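User: Is it possible to get a 3D structure for a protein together with its bound compound? The compound here is KG4. I've pasted both below.
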Amino acid sequence: MLILCIESSCDETAAAIVRDGREMLSNIVASQVDVHARYGGVVPELASRKHVEAISVVINSALEEAGVTVAQIEGIGVTRGPGLIGALLVGLSTAKAMAWALGVPLAAVHHIEGHILAPLLEEAPEFPFLALAVSGGHTHLYRVEGIGRYRTLGQTLDDAAGEAYDKVAKLLGLGYPGGAMIDRLATQGNPEAIAFPRPMLHKPNCNFSFSGIKTAVRQYVDKCQGTIDEKHMVDIAASFQEAMVEVLTRKTLRAAANEGLTRIVVAGGVACNSGLRTRFAELSPEHGVKVFFPSPSLCGDNAAMLGVPANYYLENGRHADNAVNAVSSWTLDEAGDD
Ligand code: KG4
Ligand code: ZN
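Assistant: Yes, that's possible. Here is the predicted structure of the complex:
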């Protein structure tokens, strides 16, 4: 089955062509980062307007790169939520109109479902597995029994990991979004230079809290009163990253052990993080687990990741209703089959 996938939940307009839920024929992403950077974060109305501008262009590029005509499309997969409502409505309306005009079925997919199933486009982990979804809006641990079968084990009680990275980058004057920039600086600094807190590390549950780390960085920076030079800056970045990576890896490995799972998927924008990738690789042998990271182009927001669940739902007759609407908040447990 040849599926056109459309994603517009935040500040990336994306379209992809995926065959049989496995083979990615194209994956086009138009980023709005430059538009939002000057405001220090995503401006929802601007995001919607930019999606309207970009969506047809991106879909045409996805078809062209895949060497596929629109008449060959057999189904459409689209992000229904969660995300910015105005942004979601652009992708969903486009997908509904195209499905209607082409006479093909539509699958409405949860954004995070796309993220955590992205590895199935590459070196597919067998089910069941533990999924750590780490992005600008999510830091969640899920038990994944199969496509559409998810159980939330825990989540952040305040900031998402990506949000913490972006806020710390902003207070260090690094610009938006800052995750990748902190990561780059962190590789040059001393991770033990400053002892930032590790919130919830020793709590025997699967929840996270990152606002305390961010506040500790703010207090540290305030104390330095504008005296931070380049060397000091890389040490702050490395020490912050160390605190984030330690909490994320230790709590995820403990959750896997408690659940009796030996396969872990780490997905979402923060899964690009070099420290997270290295630490999981170092720790996985002693914990007897295999950790799957999607390629960086499949970690950040993209449409190809929707192809895995969309193909499954379309093949199993779980077609979206004609009246399907976008939802800004939606849990993965609600979106699944059980
Ligand atoms: O999944 P994503 O593209 O969008 C959402 O669904 O939120 O994730 C974006 C987040 C941003 O907060 C960004 O700063 C963060 O992922 N990010 C990173 C890295 N690359 C992107 N955070 C840490 N290290 C990175 N290398
Ligand atoms: Zn995302």
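DSSP finds twelve helices and ten strands in the chain. The longest strand covers residues 23-31.
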